[in-house]
């Protein structure tokens, strides 16, 4: 079967959505199906990759989002889909690509929309207020539920946007590359580049943008140091807030190292396994691939209580309110646990989320099964964005 996936807001170098698209495509191919991915880019391209055929159509950059592009030319997208004649359509954008549900109905193609972000949360953060944002999100989510044959959510937290409307989304968790991200990547030499042997090394992995609230990681670092904890922070990721955060750390004399996008996979993997605690401050994450990769590396995570991450990290981490004081307290609680025990618990939690399970779950929503055995592997990381 030919499964055509289409997505907007896919970063050219990294990101959780990019990881998911690659892993699922590779999993579909390994399972005996054909995978085609359509994304926006600076120019038209068409190439074969280990995760299927990738077709790029020209799409403009969205101002202020750090390089993300969108497909706006509906005619070009429609012509491409008409030529491809997919057996299944998988849409990874709930807003700008909602119109594809109508195309699929006309073409007689079963369709799925995957909810990767919280529309309610985004409108709550940047919209007209809690009550107006909730009503607007409900209207748009109801349209999505009507437009597609199936809505896939990766956590129960993400499902609630739809279930409160009477819709019936299907829950399929994403996964993690358990072979690549592993405690064995722990590297004393890499750790010594960023922290002294007796210091606490914190690691923030994620995009430095407003909806991720990365300033909370600096606030937690400041609280720890004020309490006498000799902690340092490494930030792996880039985004529009990076310059401001670097200046804030400098002004407050906080020992924070900003690496930007980490293209060196070995360095990134070693950092994930060598930190003492990972910090995930995003308040509206619907899954959290970066946090899951951190757990798989044997590093526990403090996550935002308001997000879906408590479902993902389980007892291997701690959920905290969105203040530096709460995050610092959670970090200290994790550090009070024996190192071997907290690292083993982190890895055990991550092992509940193999990519093979995610691939099988997505195929089941499509009404498909494996034609041959195989699994996804070796995807690019979600964390360095």
From TrEMBL:
<dbReference type="GO" id="GO:1901137">
    <property type="term" value="P:carbohydrate derivative biosynthetic process"/>
</dbReference>
<dbReference type="InterPro" id="IPR050194">
    <property type="entry name" value="Glycosyltransferase_grp1"/>
</dbReference>
<dbReference type="GO" id="GO:0016757">
    <property type="term" value="F:glycosyltransferase activity"/>
</dbReference>
<dbReference type="InterPro" id="IPR028098">
    <property type="entry name" value="Glyco_trans_4-like_N"/>
</dbReference>
<keyword id="KW-0328">Glycosyltransferase</keyword>
<feature type="domain" description="Glycosyl transferase family 1">
    <location>
        <begin position="197"/>
        <end position="349"/>
    </location>
</feature>
<dbReference type="Pfam" id="PF00534">
    <property type="entry name" value="Glycos_transf_1"/>
</dbReference>
<dbReference type="Pfam" id="PF13439">
    <property type="entry name" value="Glyco_transf_4"/>
</dbReference>
<protein>
    <submittedName>
        <fullName>GDP-mannose-dependent alpha-(1-6)-phosphatidylinositol dimannoside mannosyltransferase</fullName>
    </submittedName>
</protein>
<keyword id="KW-0808">Transferase</keyword>
<dbReference type="InterPro" id="IPR001296">
    <property type="entry name" value="Glyco_trans_1"/>
</dbReference>
<feature type="domain" description="Glycosyltransferase subfamily 4-like N-terminal">
    <location>
        <begin position="15"/>
        <end position="180"/>
    </location>
</feature>
């Amino acid at each position: 079967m030919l499964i055509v996936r289409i997505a907007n807001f896919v970063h050219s170098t990294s990101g959780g959505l990019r990881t998911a698209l690659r892993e699922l495509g590779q999993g579909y191919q390994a399972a005996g199906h054909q995978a085609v991915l359509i994304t926006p880019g600076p120019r038209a391209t068409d190439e074969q990759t280990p995760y299927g055929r990738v077709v790029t159509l020209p799409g403009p950059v969205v101002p202020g989002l750090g390089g993300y592009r969108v497909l706006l030319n509906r005619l070009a997208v429609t012509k491409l889909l008409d030529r491809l004649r997919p057996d299944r359509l998988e849409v990874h954008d709930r807003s700008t690509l909602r119109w594809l549900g109508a195309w699929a109905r006309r073409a007689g193609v079963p369709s799925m929309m995957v909810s990767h972000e919280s529309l309610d949360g985004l409108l709550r953060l940047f919209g007209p207020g809690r009550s107006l944002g909730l009503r607007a999100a409900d209207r748009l989510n109801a349209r999505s539920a009507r437009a597609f044959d199936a809505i896939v959510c990766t956590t129960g937290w993400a499902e609630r946007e739809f279930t409160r409307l009477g819709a019936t989304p299907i829950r399929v968790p994403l996964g993690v590359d358990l072979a690549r991200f592993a405690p064995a990547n722990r590297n004393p030499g890499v750790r010594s580049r960023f922290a002294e042997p007796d210091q606490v090394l914190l690691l923030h992995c994620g995009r430095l943008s407003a909806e991720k609230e990365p300033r909370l990681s600096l606030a937690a670092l400041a609280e720890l140091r004020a309490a006498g904890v000799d902690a340092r922070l490494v930030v792996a990721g880039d985004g529009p807030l990076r310059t401001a955060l670097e200046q804030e750390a400098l002004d407050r004399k906080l020992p924070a190292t900003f690496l930007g996008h980490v293209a060196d996979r070995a360095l990134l993997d070693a950092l994930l396994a060598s930190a003492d605690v990972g910090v995930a401050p995003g308040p509206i994450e619907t899954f959290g691939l970066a946090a899951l990769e951190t757990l798989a590396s044997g590093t526990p995570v403090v996550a935002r209580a308001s997000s879906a991450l408590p479902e993902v990290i389980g007892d291997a981490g701690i959920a905290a309110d969105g203040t530096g004081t709460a995050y610092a307290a959670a970090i200290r609680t994790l550090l009070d646990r024996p190192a071997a025990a907290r690292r083993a618990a982190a890895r055990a939690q991550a092992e509940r989320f193999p990519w093979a399970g995610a691939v099988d779950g997505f195929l089941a929503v499509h009404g498909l099964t494996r034609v041959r055995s195989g699994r996804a592997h070796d995807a690019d990381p979600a964390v360095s964005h």
